[in-house]
Amino acid sequence: MPVRLTRSGAPPDIAIVHLGPGAFFRAFNAIYTEDAGDWGILAVSLRSPTVRDQLAPQGGVYTSLTLSEAGNESRIIGSIADVIVAPEAPEKVLAAMANPAVKVVSLTVTEKGYCHEPSTGSLNFDHGDIQHDLRNLNAPKSAVGFIVAALEQRRRAGAKAFTVLSCDNLPSNGDLVRGIVLQFAAKVCSDLSDWIAKNTSFPATMVDRITPATTEADVAALEKAEGYYDPGCVVHESFRQWVIEDDFVDGRPAWDKVGAQMVASVEKHELMKLRCLNGTHSTLAYLGYLAGYDTIAECVRDPAFAALCEKLWREEITPVLAEPEGEDLERYCEKLMARYRDAAIRHRTWQIAMDGSQKLPQRILGTIRDNLERGVVPRGLCLAVAGWMRYVGGVDENGTPIDVRDPLSAQLQQISREAQDKVNALLALEEVFGLSLPKNERFCATVSEAYDQLVSSGARATVKGWLSPVR
Ligand code: CS2
Predict the structure, then answer these.
(1) How close is the Cα of 275 to the center of ligand 1, in Å?
(2) What domain range is 40 assigned to?
(3) Same domain, 425 and 284
(4) Which residue has a Cα nearest atom 1 of ligand 1?
(5) Sorting pLDDT into bands at 50, 70 and 90, what band is 471?
(6) Which of 287, 278, 317 is nearest to 305 (CA)?
(7) Helices (H), 38-169
(8) Does residue 237 share a domain with residue 337?
(9) Which stretches does DSSP call E strand in 181-288?
């Protein structure tokens, strides 16, 4: 039997409830919180028992493994005091969130966890979980349902509210979560939404640390190196950046003392990160997957892919970005390329390609819109959109099925199977592309041209010739 990692000493007192304790949260928020001192975290999985099953036998502790070509560094993290699987005990989660000792409720639930319309940011009242939660507020399923139900319990008890801290890769994530919370609360009762609007804050954040999914090989390598078994370990790069709007209704950990940047407005930082990093990540993920590359590092080892990425930054993305205070966009992008090239980080194109319908709007389509407004057709990003379209068709260039993971996958594959004009049928998905973009003929024509070329010449050749065509 392998030796299991275990906690020594008592866990910290719980002052944060975190919804969505996936690998990113454990590689990022939980480490900043550990560094900042004695705020303990109750981690709540909204769906799967995996993280609880990994961490409970270890008393909540786990290993963070910083990967680098020079050698890995491991550290044991103890800020997670307990883990609950919400569907097994929703009332326990609500009781914890309603306890005034909890001052911050944070979230990393991924884009689709907000149950919103990606193109508008409004709550999707047709979503099955939202319909369920409006009828069963004492046993919700969604993040927004838990937040509203807990705030309602606090209001009734005459207690203080908590701060809601979204840490997902969404633009204006504070405003977004405020919007959906208030829309949901207004359906419960208007006094509640007024109370929340007055008493709760929703600071926006920008979060950044590349965190590939942990593999069995990672767990085995850790066991070999450290002599204990820890299936809850997380692997990540050494870089980290957390920018937070300093607007908390009942205090916060001293994250600013351990590297987080507290600012008045996060918007410019968030757009820079979403468009420069996540925008090129998604581009490389779709085109790279189609070209047969397994990881981002493999993609950028191909000079044509690296050149595409650099051209996107220089010619299409940064020209329509405002530079955040304290940042230099050119240097930011150079640093990104160095992060992508790090072969110790095996970040799979397939992992990043997931949930594209939820990611494209804020990562790529906003930049395309801004370019069209200045009269430029951003050909590189149009190729990225075409890459997504080819990818969600569900068959790769060798005729092998692709495991497409997306909340819209059934619809996407039906369109790809049945539509005569696949490009225009996909562009008509209003929840992804909105209304105005598909009306721009130059945009649609360029995406169609890119799609046809991907089909006829394959991704590698298309990427090579696309931005410097041999005419
Ligand atoms: C990636 C992000 O999976 C993805 O879609 O683009 O998780 C990315 O690695 C992080 O945002 C980096 O901070």
Answers:
(1) 11
(2) 14-263
(3) yes
(4) 352
(5) very low
(6) 287
(7) 50-55, 90-98, 128-135, 143-157
(8) no
(9) 205-208, 234-236, 241-245, 261-263
Residues 211 and 271 in one domain: no
User: Who lines ligand 1 at CB under 6 A?
Assistant: 169, 208-210, 277-278, 281, 351-352
pTM of the model: 0.96
What is the number of the ligand 1 atom nearest to the C-alpha of 209? 13
- Residue where a domain stops, chosen among 236, 263, 290: 263
Chain length of the chain: 471
Domain count, the chain: 2
Q: Measured from the CA of 211, which atom of ligand 1 is nearest?
A: 9
What's the 44 CA to ligand 1 centre distance in angstroms? 21
193 assigned to some structural domain: yes
Q: What is the pLDDT of residues 343-364, one digit of tens each?
A: 999 999 999 999 999 999 999 9
**What would the mean pLDDT of 149-175 be, rounded to a whole number?**
97
> Same domain for 301 and 233?
no
Sign of the alpha-carbon dihedral angle for 94, 77, 355, 430: positive
Quick: pLDDT tens for 109-160.
999 999 999 888 999 999 999 999 999 999 999 999 999 999 999 999 999 9
